[in-house]
């Protein structure tokens, strides 16, 4: 589904991704963790073509990045992305947030867009919030709206960049539950998160990044097993966050 092949990226003179390679199979859930500044956000932004790569390539289904400019919005539409800070449109209702890109990017009719929006709102347990504005919702509810908004675009895979790290602790679980459900339904997912409970429950694989490199790329069993088979650096990192 997603193939990352020898990807390197620079911001100006600074190299932030070093020859990164990995694959995410259809239906697989991959958790990406690692210290702050290790390149996790940059990597997921490159997969969504929000950032350009200077070396290597990324294959997503039938698309290859770097892609011609004319394909970029189609690629972004097919790769669902959920950020740390929700990024809902504050001046639109929840329902309008869910309908906007469907109509603008996918050119869906209003009725069709609204039906899907209501369907996904129900899926994330927020049917009664359709007419509210994002500012009237809790952080956890806003993040569930952001997930529903991404799902409205019929994404072939979903990327999450620390979706729970800006939330108050009591709201983390309601968002993780939606993500666990999605994983159970067979959605292909790449999740940057330090929620190791989530990772040990649903991750097929765990990638550990450090200084722009993929240091570990192992199965959940290898990563969390009692005789942990991940690198010493990853084990040191894990011991600090668990
Ligand atoms: P992480 O998500 O793992 O914390 P990031 O991908 O955000 O790491 O950042 C990786 C490196 O790239 C860091 O050194 C960061 O300072 C740098 N960086 C991130 N975004 C930019 C940018 N827009 N311009 C320049 N440097 C950036
Ligand atoms: Mg980040």
Automatic annotation (TrEMBL):
Membrane keyword on record: yes
Subcellular localization: Cell inner membrane
Keyword Amino-acid biosynthesis: no
Topology class, membrane: Peripheral membrane protein
PROSITE patterns linked: ABC_TRANSPORTER_1, ABC_TRANSPORTER_2
Signal peptide location: none
Stored SMART domains: AAA (SM00382)
GO CC, one annotated term: plasma membrane
Molecular-function GO terms, alphabetical: ABC-type amino acid transporter activity; ATP binding; ATP hydrolysis activity
Domain ABC transporter: 2-236
Homology family: Belongs to the ABC transporter superfamily.
PANTHER family in the cross-refs: AMINO ACID IMPORT ATP-BINDING PROTEIN, GLUTAMATE_ASPARTATE IMPORT ATP-BINDING PROTEIN GLTL
Name by which UniProt lists this protein: ABC transporter domain-containing protein
Organism: Lysobacter concretionis Ko07 = DSM 16239
């Amino acid at each position: 589904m997603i193939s990352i092949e020898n990807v390197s990226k620079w911001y100006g003179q600074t190299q932030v991704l070093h020859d990164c390679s990995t694959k995410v199979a259809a239906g697989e859930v991959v958790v990406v963790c690692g210290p702050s500044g290790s390149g996790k956000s940059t990597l997921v932004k490159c997969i969504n073509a929000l950032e350009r790569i200077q070396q290597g390539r990324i294959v997503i289904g039938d698309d290859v990045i770097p892609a011609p400019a004319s394909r970029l919005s189609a690629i972004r539409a097919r790769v669902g992305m959920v950020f740390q800070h929700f990024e809902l449109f504050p001046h639109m209702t929840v329902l309008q947030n869910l309908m906007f890109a469907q109509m603008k990017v996918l050119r869906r009719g209003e009725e069709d867009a609204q039906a899907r929006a209501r369907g996904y709102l129900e899926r994330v347990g927020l049917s009664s919030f359709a007419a509210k504005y994002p500012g009237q919702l809790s952080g956890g509810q806003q993040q569930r709206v952001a997930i529903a908004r991404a799902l409205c675009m019929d994404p072939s895979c979903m990327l999450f960049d620390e979706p729970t790290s800006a939330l108050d602790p009591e709201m983390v679980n309601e968002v993780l539950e939606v993500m666990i459900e999605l994983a159970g339904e067979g959605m292909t997912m790449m999740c940057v998160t330090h929620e190791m409970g989530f990772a040990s429950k649903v991750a097929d694989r765990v990638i550990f990044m450090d200084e722009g490199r993929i240091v570990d790329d192992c199965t959940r069993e290898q990563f969390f097993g009692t005789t942990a088979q991940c690198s010493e650096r990853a084990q040191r990192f894990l011991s600090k966050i668990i």
